[in-house]
Amino acid sequence: MKLRFLLPLVLLSACSAAEEEWKLHTFEEPHMGTLYRVMSYTREGTVEDLTLLTEKAFDRVEELNSIFSDYLPESELNDLARAPVNEPIPVSEDLYRILDRAKLLTEETGGAFDVTAGPLIRLWRMAKKNQKLPSPDQLTRAKARTGAHLIELDPVARTVTKRAEGMLFDLGGIAKGYAADEALKILREGGFPSSLVAASGDIVVGDPPPGKKGWRIGIETLEVGVDLSELETVTLVNQAISTSADTRQFLELDGKRYSHIVSTKTGLGLTERVGASVIAADATTTDSHATALTLLGAGEGLKWIEGKENVEARILFLKDGEQTEKRTSGFPETR
Question: Cβ–Cβ contacts within 10 Å for residue 253, how many?
Fold first, then answer.
């Protein structure tokens, strides 16, 4: 599921004379299998500076893709997968940082979120391609190579040690958010704090647009094709929001609908329709927590989120064919 930033709600609002000095500029580039979009406000005469800075931000996203991608054969992540077992492997600061965040999240969610689930995810990709569910034997072998307990992280030496042969990693539930954070950091530090970075379902924003309370972000439902003007919105300032769901990516076999989000318990795509939106201070958190929340479900997932400081969530699911909503106590009012 993708979130949409509502351009008409920003651009068509009445502007004061002071606000008219500012202009909104939008830049787009494809990265990490999706479209990254940068939106930033500038005063007259600073557009060239913003353009150069945005190129730097996109270069940073591309650099991170060369580290985190499980599709690029020579990525650092795949180098780690090919590295020998029971041997400390030095890794980059970015890879160590994201694996450390992911491992902590795996422990918090009882293994529901797990970046070592690459064997299960690869198996599910093949199932979608072949339109055939994996066999019990295939699932058993894949599960044997999955689990955060099979990697050890050394923060002093900045190394990763694998404890099983054939391990594969998948950072799809956290990498896009991390890269969006890094891109916004470049814009902020370069003097453009009123900026937004969006990567599919992950959006992180800085200071409010000139003269506005914040960035208005539209949140999609479980339905496809809802008119943009009908979406509920939240207003964010120096925050991030991510939404995870199976609205567009799913597989139907023998009358059953399977999500692209793979359960580490079953090794199959989720069969319950669910969508989760998470708001926090950064997109690394919202990206990973939105994925984890869909895997945990409304009851267990919202209880877990309620125990976290400065993290709020809303979850949508189908009950008797009707869309039902639950949210944490601090999730902002939608409009």
Answer: 14
